[in-house]
Specification:
13 strands, five-stranded parallel beta sheet, elongated, 21 helices, 588 residues, alpha/beta, single chain
Length: 588
């Protein structure tokens, strides 16, 4: 008997179905089987109560649609089976309530079914609204028919209480099975959501690994091009050669800017972008952004004006590094699309420590359609814009994300042919804490005579670049190609600083640093990596490096690193300058 029931419940269950889907089919079969048993039991009972034998076969025939899901489930038609069961159960209970008589109050059982259907019917059901109204309509029809047509009940008064209890018990049992069915469907949806979430995480991880690898493969040759071009520019060149070298460096920096933009966008999409509030000089940050964009504006004959309505000597609390990135993006965009006139930057204080920044240009402007999409990634006003002006369309998308991440907002207004205005509002509280000293080259960054540096770098071009830079600074450099060679060199010669690449064949930089620290050696280590991801820089610092910088590293930054390493404060300098793993700074 038990095996026969199990075979009935397993009708429609397939090997390829997951646990939740199998449970859903079994519960649907369970409801159909329960309806069949109810018909077998209530048919003779109703015939006995009414005194008319023909009620038994009528009951059995009337319950056939409720048993039909056993057939539909076996053919994979679960949804049809469930919907027919809902509709026919409502119709059947309405008929029973009407025929039993007003004294049985079987409409209360119908009310339970109606409420249960409203609650339990999945919201993704295409006919949800129609199916949910059928039980309520059946309930209302009972009252309407009784009010309009007097009907004598089939159940004698003495048995009406017993009939009420039996129907309520049967309805409750059916509703319990539907609850279990709903739980099975919810469990199946949870399984699908978990699978989709896992698939999305896997795709995100794959994208992150791809970006990390591509970043390393692209940034490594870019670092070599920029470094060698800088060395070339320090030699005696005629005007034409100098012009070629400058254009080569500018092109390499532009390519590096695109790579950095893609990495920033990936971090923002993954929710891994973090801001690091610290005291900074707002006026200085704006001035530095102007200095970066100024040469391009002057080369186009554009006026670049700044209007600062800020109290002098006031410092702000915020991420000055990212704010400068936002300003450079907006100013570069304004200069790029402006041929005549100029660009104006206006900065003023608002209420509650807010700061307002306007970047206004007299450039091409945009129509309403382009304005609606201006902050979308990879968007340009039209195809000719990309061909004429270049760019990836990432700058404004990254800018808006950084501003919003800081709790601010940015909007844009534009008129075709007359120019564009970007307006930023950010909360940058005034602080009395002094900003950290600028980490760029200064007269204080003197390098001790006779300083010895060990460089672990496997790329021949990068070896040539950094060796030439160190020689230009008057520093003796020893070059090795992997981490094990670096440890071997340290065993025989003391060094004042180790410049350690992250990825090298054999033993990489982090592993070599871990072994170095495990031996109790406190020699300063400056990590270099072409991977600008926060996780990569974090790995360097966890291994024991004092500071980790993303390639390429320029001569000024290298001078500063040497100075602080000789002074014994390389790690402190890195923390004070925000060269932390989560910020992923570019060296220089």
């Amino acid at each position: 008997m038990v095996k026969a029931i199990e075979r009935v419940l397993d009708r429609g269950v397939r090997d390829h179905q997951g646990p939740s889907e199998r449970m859903r089919v079994r519960l649907s079969n369970e409801i159909a089987l329960a309806d069949g048993v109810t018909a077998l039991f209530f048919g003779p009972l109703w015939a006995a109560l009414s005194g008319q034998w023909w009620w038994a076969p009528v009951f059995w025939l009337a319950f056939v649609p409720n048993v039909a899901p056993l057939w539909w489930n076996a053919r994979g038609r679960y949804r049809m089976a469930r919907n027919v069961s809902i509709v026919w159960s409502s119709v059947m209970l309405a008929g029973i309530a009407l025929s039993a008589g007003a004294g049985c109050h079987l409409e209360l059982g119908l009310l339970v079914t109606a409420c249960g259907t409203l609650v339990l019917l999945p919201p993704d059901e295409p006919h949800h609204r129609l199916l949910s109204t059928i039980p309520i309509g059946a309930l209302l029809s009972v009252f309407v028919v009784r009010a309009m047509v007097p009907i004598d009940g089939l159940v004698p008064v003495d048995y009406q209480g017993a009939a009420f209890v039996l129907v309520v018990v049967a309805t409750a049992g059916n509703l319990t099975a539907k609850v279990r069915l709903l739980l099975g469907e919810a469990s199946e949806r949870d399984d699908r959501l978990r699978a989709a979430s896992q698939e999305a995480r896997s795709a995100s991880d794959a994208k992150s690994r791809f970006l990390a690898q591509m970043s390393h493969e692209i940034r490594t040759p870019i670092a070599g091009v920029i470094g060698l071009t800088d060395l070339m520019l320090d030699t005696a060149l005629d005007d034409r050669q100098s012009n070629y070298a400058e254009r080569t460096r500018a092109s390499a920096e532009h390519l590096l800017h695109i790579v950095n933009g893609l990495l920033d966008l990936a971090k923002i999409e993954a929710g891994a972008m973090e801001l690091h509030p610290e005291p900074f000089d707002l006026s200085q940050a704006i001035s530095e952004a102007i200095d970066i964009v100024g040469p391009r504006a002057r080369s186009k004959g554009l006026d670049l004006h700044v209007s600062l309505e800020l109290p002098s000597g006031s410092w702000r609390m915020g991420d000055g590094f990212r704010l400068k990135q936002v300003l450079v993006n907006l100013l570069s965009n304004a200069v790029k699309f402006t041929e005549d006139g100029g660009v104006v930057v206006r900065v003023w204080e608002g209420d509650a420590d807010s700061v307002h920044i306007d970047v206004d240009d007299t450039g091409l402007g945009m129509d309403a359609a382009a304005l609606d999409r201006v902050f979308e990634p990879f968007h340009q006003a039209d195809a000719s814009t990309a061909r004429r002006f270049g760019g990836t369309g990432l700058g404004l998308s990254i800018t808006r994300s950084l501003v919003r991440l800081a709790g601010g907002d940015i909007d844009c207004s534009s008129t075709p042919g007359k120019g564009t205005t970007f307006h930023i509002r950010m909360v940058l509280p005034i602080t009395r804490e002094r900003p950290a000293r600028d980490g760029g080259p200064s007269e204080e960054d003197r390098i001790p005579v006779g300083m010895r540096v060990l460089v672990a770098e496997d790329n021949p071009v990068n070896q040539l670049v950094i060796q030439s830079q160190l020689q230009a600074l008057g520093v003796e450099a020893t070059m090795v190609g992997d981490g094990q060679a670096a440890l071997d060199a340290l065993a025989h010669t003391p060094f004042d600083l180790i410049v350690m690449d992250m990825q090298m064949p054999g033993m990489d930089g982090p592993e070599a640093t871990r072994r170095l620290r495990a031996d109790g050696r406190a020699v300063p280590v400056c990590g270099l990596t072409a991977n600008a991801r926060a996780a990569d820089l974090q790995q360097c610092l966890r291994a024991g490096m004092d500071v980790a910088l993303a390639k390429p590293i320029d001569l000024g930054t290298l001078r500063t690193v040497l100075h602080h390493a000789a002074a014994g404060g390389l790690a402190e300098w890195g923390r004070s300058r925000g060269f932390s793993p989560s910020q992923a700074p570019t060296a220089g």
